[in-house]
Each structure stands twice: as C-alpha cells, then as structure tokens.
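Subject: design request, 206 residues
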C-alpha cells in the first residue's frame, strides 16, 4: 500500500484537516480491499479443502469395501493353515494366506493442514472431517501391521513337514497375529466407513 503526499500547498487548518480525511479514507479503503481479497482467498481454500475431502473420502470408502470384501476369504485361508500346522501329519500348502490391502491416501487432509484451510470451517465441519481422517489413519495402521506380519510368514516355506516343532509353533503364532490384524481391520473399517460417510454426506457447507 503506497501513501502519497498531497499535491499543492496547505494554506489553512481546513486544508490540513481535509487532506487528513482524504488520506484516512484512502487507507481505510485500501485496508478494506486487502481484507476482502484475503477473505475471498481463505473462503476459496475452505471450499477447495471440502471438495478434496469429499472426493478423497469417497474413493477411500470404495477401496475399504474392496479390502473388507476379501477379508473373510483371507481369514478362511489362515484357519486352514493353522489347522494343517496343528495336525499330526501336516501336508505341503500351495501358498500362504492371501493379502489384499489398499494403503489409502490422506493427501487432501495433509494439504488442508498445511494451508490452514481448516480455520475457515465451522467447528462441526472440522470435527466431522477430523474424525473421519483420524479413523482412516487407524485403518491404514492396521493394514500396514497386517502387511508386515504377512511378509514375515513367507520365510518359513510351504512344507510344514520340513519344519521343526518350534518352527511350526512360531508360524502358528505369526498366523494368529496376522489373523488378529484382520479382525482389527474389520472393526476399524466399519467405524471408519461410518465416519467417512457422515463427513461426505454433510450438507452444512452447501
């Protein structure tokens, strides 16, 4: 914002006061315009953030559905492995229990935090989206734990008959850990989907 000295001589107190009024009005107008531009910018950030949240959460819910739909099949495969390892004469298995994870993105939330767009949302709106993304992170953490445990299984090989009794016990323990990860994933998925759906269907921003 630039201020300019009034042109022409100031001959009286009246001229001086007139110049002061003119300058003051100019400053107020300039400040008002700056605030209006800034308010418009912040409002746009908020609108963009909400649009990004809704698009990302909708996609994440679809990916969660795909993961959860495969969960019973993987649980069944784990049960088959444990039963085989626990039998007196275990037979070779064709493959380890499957893995079906989609590590879900949270880029829209991270961007909104970086740009402080959340400050332009109402408390209710911010709470809805914060809850959805917090539960989403729980779901993602469960996926990562499951993936790590699944990778550890493969070092034992596919033929239980070739394993020592201690190796079988270790493998059963790791299979149960993987099974527990999927139980957590199932529970977290239900809660996460409910929170995501509530946020996506919120109409208070409309």
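Subject: RE: design request

Done. Sequence follows.
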């Amino acid at each position: 914002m630039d201020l300019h000295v009034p042109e022409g001589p100031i001959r009286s107190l009246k001229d001086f006061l007139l110049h002061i009024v003119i300058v003051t009005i100019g400053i107020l107008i300039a400040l008002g315009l700056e605030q209006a531009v800034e308010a418009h910018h912040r409002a746009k950030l908020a609108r963009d953030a909400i649009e990004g949240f809704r698009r990302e959460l909708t996609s994440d819910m679809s990916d969660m559905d795909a993961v959860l739909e495969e969960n019973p099949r993987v649980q069944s495969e784990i049960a088959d492995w444990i039963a085989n390892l626990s039998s007196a004469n275990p037979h070779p298995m064709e493959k380890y229990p499957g893995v079906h994870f989609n590590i879900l993105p949270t880029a829209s939330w991270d961007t909104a935090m970086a740009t402080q767009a959340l400050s332009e949302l109402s408390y209710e709106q911010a709470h809805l989206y914060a809850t959805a993304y917090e539960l989403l992170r729980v779901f993602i953490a469960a996926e990562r734990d499951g993936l790590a445990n699944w990778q550890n299984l493969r070092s034992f090989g596919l033929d239980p008959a070739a394993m020592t009794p201690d190796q079988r016990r270790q493998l059963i323990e790791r299979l149960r850990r993987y099974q527990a990860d999927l139980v957590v994933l199932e529970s977290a998925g239900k809660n996460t989907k409910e929170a995501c759906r509530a946020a996506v269907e919120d109409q208070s921003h409309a």
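The two ends are 35 Å apart (CA to CA).
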